[in-house]
Amino acid sequence: MNFAEFGGPDVLQLIDAEEPHAGPGQIRIAVRAAGVNPVDWRIREGQVLGAHPIELPAGVGLDASGVVDEVGEGVEGVEVGDHVFGEGSSTYAEFAVLSAWARMPEGLTFEEAAGYPSVVETALRIIREVGVQPGQTLLVSGASGGVGSAVLQIARDRGITVIGTAGAANQDYLRSLGALAATYGEGWVERVRQIGHVDAALDLAGSGVIRELVELTGDPQKVISIADLAAPELGVRFSGVAGSVPEALAEAADLISRGKLHIPVEKSYTLAEASAAHIDSQAGHTRGRRVMVV
């Protein structure tokens, strides 16, 4: 799957491409599933070239799970045939090269595993960057998607109280992940205030709530956005550059193995349905993750 120009979902094309090969420090996998992330369509639109510089035509996708079939020079601890999940490039494909990976935890399906890499890295990074501590309360705006699902569970595992906002249909889902839930819409700030004091906040949906999050925390330094490119205009940090993906994958595998992290797959798509996957991702209202099955 690739695109030759920036634009809408219609620029995506399913093509026959040359097989990639693992370079030094990389592995190649036979892809079984690929994660569908908002960053995928943001890159396709040309939005985030600073963090992910690309040359056109370009492939699509960063996350994947699959079976190792090629090991690059200098790589140790992984062998052909191992089941792994991780992050690389052009993962909406039959074969993909990964630059960071971990063994899939026991009992995880390929579809489930593909939904974790970027999501968990992002969740761990923004929890760290916003500076919320055990015993404090974190507000998560747009909490029912992949990153939100990870943030809620990781924060709760660290002894942080979490208030999550989402649509009415996802209130029980947020509660099932240990969050105190509030609905979007008129009056949502007051509904959050009735739940309790907010020490820090995360904007995951980019729904124009930065001013309100600053108001609730009392400090723009206590708010992080991963979805509103205009956030810095209000003194709020936009976090878009990944930290250590190998460390995040190791922590994800540990959390999953301990039963502390589970992100459901809301919907799966075939490669031929990539445009539909991007349309659905951009529309939001996800509960958990969307993945591409190869």
Automatic annotation (TrEMBL):
Pfam families: ADH_N, ADH_zinc_N_2. PANTHER family: QUINONE OXIDOREDUCTASE. InterPro entries: ADH-like_N, ER, GroES-like_sf, NAD(P)-bd_dom_sf, Quin_OxRdtase/zeta-crystal_CS, Zinc-ADH_QOR/CCCR. Residues 7-292 form the Enoyl reductase (ER) domain. Its main location: cytoplasm. The keyword NADP applies. Keywords: Cytoplasm, NADP, RNA-binding. It comes from the Bacteria. This is NADP-dependent oxidoreductase. Homotetramer. It is found in: Cytoplasm.
